[in-house]
Each structure stands twice: as C-alpha cells, then as structure tokens.
Specification:
mainly alpha, Growth Hormone, Chain: A, 80% helix
C-alpha cells in the first residue's frame, strides 16, 4: 500500500472510531425518554463519555511510545467493540452512565493514529498529512450525528451502538491486514516511568500547556453547543425528531474542509495566527446564535462559523505541539488531548446545567465564557513568545 492510500485508511479508521463519542448527541432526548430522566441528567451521558475519553488518553495513548502501535490499535478496536455492545443492552441508567464512561475510555484509537501519521510524514508535509487524517476524524464526527439520528429514530437508539460495535470489529480486522508495523521511539521506558515523564514534559514545555488550555476552552465552547442543541431543536419553533437533528451535523462539513487548509497554513507560518482567527470565529458564532436561535437560517450560519473556528484551531494547535518534541509525539499528544477533552466535558456539563437554569441564554453565556478563557490563554502565549515569522 502506498503512503497516500495509507493516509486515507488512517483517516477513515480515525473517523469510524471517533464517531463512537458522538453518537449520543442527537439521541439524548430518546435516551431521556427510555430511562425516564430529565435533560440535565441525560446530559451526563455526553460529559462522562468525554471524561472517559480523557482518562483513556492518559492511560492508553502513552503506550504508543512503548508498544508496537499496530497491535495497540487492534486491541483498542476490540475493547471499543465490547464497550459498544454493552452500552446497547444495559437496562438501568446509572450502570448505563458508567458504561458510557468505559466506552470513552476505550475509544482512543484516533489519538494513537494521529501521532503515527505525523511520524510517518516528511517534515515538509506533516501539517498536510495531519490535516487529511483530521479531516477523516471530523467527517466521522459529522457522520456520527447524522447516522445515529436516523438509525435511532427508525430502529431505536440501542441499534446504533450494536451496529457501531460490529463496525469496530471490521476495522480491527482491516488494521491487521493493512496497517504497517510501527515501532515506538523508546524501548527502555516502563509504563510507570512513561506516565511519570508527563510531569517533566509539562514543566519543560510551557507552550504545550498554553496550546492545551486554549484547545480545551475552544472544545468546551463547541461541546456546550452540540450537547444542548438537541434540547433547543426539540422545542418551539422546531419540534424536530432525532433524525432531523442529526442532519445538522452535516453543516460541520465546512469545518472538515478547513482542516487541510489550516494544516497547510500551519506548515508555512506560526500556527498561532490561525488560532487567533479561530477564537474570533467561535466568539462571533455565539454572539450571532444567542439572540437568533429561533431562526433556522441563523442557526445554520452560526453552526458553520462555529465548526470552522473550532476545527481550524484544533489543527493549528496540533501542528504547533508536534513541533515541540519530535521524539515524544504520543506523550505530547496525550497531554494536549487529555486537557482538550476535559475542557469538552466541562463545556457539556456546564451547558447542560445552564440549560436547566436559563435555557438557551444560559448556554450562550457558558459558550462565550469558554471562548473568553481561550482568548486569555492565547494572549499570554503571544505576549510570552511574540510571532516572528515561523517561530514554532
């Protein structure tokens, strides 16, 4: 298999895996009815899945610097398949929440594949390759919402997870046949030492910390919106079903299409330039959708702008951090993505609570608050290390 086809396979595998984190979003109302709980309680499904994902990143992704990566990816696909099938059959709400945490814990294949793609790519095209793989990831997110909405409406939400589990088994087999062996950079480290090495990495790379916090705040704003959009579209003037709500995920195609462009820009200049624009787009989206959420056309425009902002910022931040420690990209990615998804879980939790208190106005305030936090951290980065050509 040529490198170009391998990159395409990595993009597809990444998208299929990450979709497992987002199937729940259009299904939250159906889940609430099934378990007889309210919107604030069912919002914990999204929050705990993201917290589980962050924990999985911390526990499993560093192994990519220790174990052969092909075997690790296959094992994670199999664990994910098992978790998906269990989510589909658990009858009680509290165990269901716990199993969604376990699902997030296992679904970390994307963050093993992305550093491998960065390792395999030449320095001159690393941003472009990462952008292509991330496009697959973003398309997986979009497809997850759309597919789960339709399947959930027609066959019930448990069928979504049953089918997803079968898909993970297929990808485990495909990875065994297609993916090349990928040895780790470090053979002398033990697992405990690998985890302990994250502390010095954080202390020695302040720019990694700032990129991680900026990304986390932007993803928090993103998650705040998508977690509560289901509730908003279930009310007047919309009263949409899960299948219609899932279609809104397709509006994020604009964000996916921006990923390779953001990657190319990051290859040519300081990625923080693109991050600056990304923060502005996210703020603009919330200021636009806050007072206009009752107008369908305004929501459509706002979703496109929000996705463009968040995904461009994500690609730029990842290109930025991969340049810091070429011999420890999996651990660098661990620090970044653990922080990133903790920010997402915070956004989901705060927005669900804010929805219960103040409806869409509360969600808007929560999203803008996360965006302001991103701006503050980003300004600190620009002050500490001014942009001078391609400085990072």
């Amino acid at each position: 298999m040529t490198f170009s086809w391998l990159v395409i396979f990595m993009a597809i595998a990444t998208g299929a895996s990450v979709a497992n984190l987002y199937y729940n979003q259009p299904l939250l109302t159906l889940m609430a009815h099934s378990f007889h709980v309210g919107s604030a309680a069912v919002g914990a499904v999204t929050m705990l899945t993201q917290i589980g994902y962050a924990a999985g990143l911390l526990l499993f992704v560093p192994l990519a610097d220790l174990w052969e990566r092909k075997r690790l990816i296959i094992g994670l696909f199999l664990l994910t398949a098992m978790a998906l099938e269990l989510v589909a059959v658990i009858p009680a709400f509290i165990p269901f929440l716990a199993m969604n945490f376990a699902l997030g814990l296992a679904t970390v294949v994307p963050q093993v594949i992305v550093p491998v793609a960065a390792d395999l790519a030449p320095d001159s095209s690393r941003g472009r390759v990462v952008g292509v793989v991330m496009s697959g990831l973003l398309i997986g997110i979009l497809g997850a919402r759309t597919v789960s909405g339709f399947v959930g409406d027609w066959l019930g939400w448990p069928r979504v997870y049953e089918l997803a589990g079968l898909l993970m088994l297929i990808f485990a087999g495909a990875t065994a046949r297609i993916f090349p062996r990928s040895e780790p950079h470090h053979h002398g480290l033990r697992y405990a030492g690998l985890l302990r090495s994250l502390g010095p990495l954080i202390r020695q790379e302040p720019e990694l910390v700032r990129a991680s916090l900026t990304g986390a705040a932007l993803f928090g704003a993103f998650s705040a919106f998508w977690t509560t959009l289901t509730f908003r579209l279930g009310l007047a003037p919309y009263h949409y079903s899960a299948s219609i709500i899932g279609l809104f995920g397709l509006l994020g195609i604009a964000g996916a299409s921006a990923a390779p462009v953001a990657g190319r820009l990051a290859d040519k200049r300081d990625p923080r330039i693109t991050v600056t624009a990304s923060i502005g787009l996210v703020a603009l989206a919330y200021l636009w959708m806050g007072p206009l959420s009752g107008h369908l056309w305004a929501l459509i425009v706002g979703i496109i702008v929000l996705d463009l902002g968040v995904q461009s910022g994500q690609i730029s931040n990842q290109s930025r951090i991969y340049a810091l420690r070429p011999n420890a990209r999996a651990r660098v990615n661990t620090v970044y993505m653990v922080t990133y998804f903790l920010g997402g879980s915070l956004g989901s939790g705060v927005a669900s609570w804010a929805w219960g208190i103040a409806g869409w106005t509360g969600v808007t305030v929560a999203g803008l608050g996360m965006t302001v936090a991103a701006a503050i951290v980003h300004i600190v980065s620009l002050v500490r290390q001014p942009i001078i050509g391609r400085s990072l």
